[in-house]
Amino acid sequence: MSAPAAPTVTNMKKRLLETKTLAGVLLALCLAPSAPAAAQTQTAAPGEHDAEILGVRVGMDVPAALEAVFVNAKRKPGEERPDAKRTEGKDVRVIYKKLSAGELQIVFAEGKWVREVVLNYAAKPYFADLRLAPTGSIAVVGIRDKLDSVIEYGGRYDDRYSIGYTSDRKLERFWWRDEPTPAGYRVRVGFVSERLVDGQLAAKTVARKLVGVTPGDEEKFKSAMSSR
Predict the structure, then answer these.
(1) Considering the entire predicted model, what is its pTM?
(2) pLDDT class for 155, splitting at 50, 70, 90?
């Protein structure tokens, strides 16, 4: 039997190119999220960015809001009423303390219409899972942050939100966006991070979600509700 032919320079270059191509494909597969993980990120918080909490929206009357909580929080017969209620000037705040989603507070303007809804999460979501940018401006998100977003979270940040803090002490990060309504007032959807503790550089989870009338639009809201 004749000896196998020695590899030519052309064949060697071809094999080297194939090896590099295969290595590149394997590296891309290692860095890219798997299909199930990507799908999980897409649906991690369905409806979490909607301008409602447990079906409660700004402008609802008292019966509609309480029914929404009863249905969407899967309350049992006998649990139709909130756990607590207090008067704040002309407004009324009701509190649900034992929901699986967390503690829910609803403020009824003049005791009639939903002006604000706040949910203090029982299971605090990571702000990355909600696609909330980690810095004060989408434009200044660093290269490393963008790379982390692609590799770890499989997608882009939600650029509808402005980003700041709840106070000058900068202990709680605040993401918010304002949406116009046909009635003429705007509704604000916001998320607040956990409060920083001593020695902590940054929080990674969201403590609460809020939906309410945008500050400055209170009179427009009141006028719209009164004209119903």
Answers:
(1) 0.72
(2) low
195 Cβ contact list (under 8 Å, min separation 6): 171, 172, 203, 207
CA 94 to chain centre: 24
How far is 222 from 58, CA to CA, in rounded Å?
12
Of 220, 113, 108, 126, the residue nearest 175 (C-alpha):
126
Q: What is the pLDDT of residue 197?
A: 76
14-22 contacts, C-beta under 8 A, 24 or more apart: none
Distance between CA atoms of 86 and 180, rounded to whole angstroms? 30
Identify which has the larger pLDDT, 20 or 54: 54
Asked whether the beta carbons of 68 and 56 are under 8 A apart, the reply is yes
Domain boundaries, the chain: 48-226
Query: Which pLDDT tens digit goes with each residue over 172-181?
Result: 999 999 999 9
Place of tokens 């982390």: 148
**Res 28: pLDDT:** 41
Q: Which two tokens stand for residue 25?
A: 């494909």
CB distance 116 to 58 below 8 Å: yes
Over residues 75-95, the mean pLDDT reads 96
* Residues sharing a CB contact under 8 Å with residue 201, sequence separation 6 or more, in sequence order: none
DSSP secondary structure string for all residues of 149-216: HHHHH-S---TT-EEEESSTT--SEEEEEEEE-TTS-EEEEEEEEPPP-TT-----BEEEEEEEEPTT
Q: Is 180 helix (H, G, I), strand (E, B) or coil?
A: strand
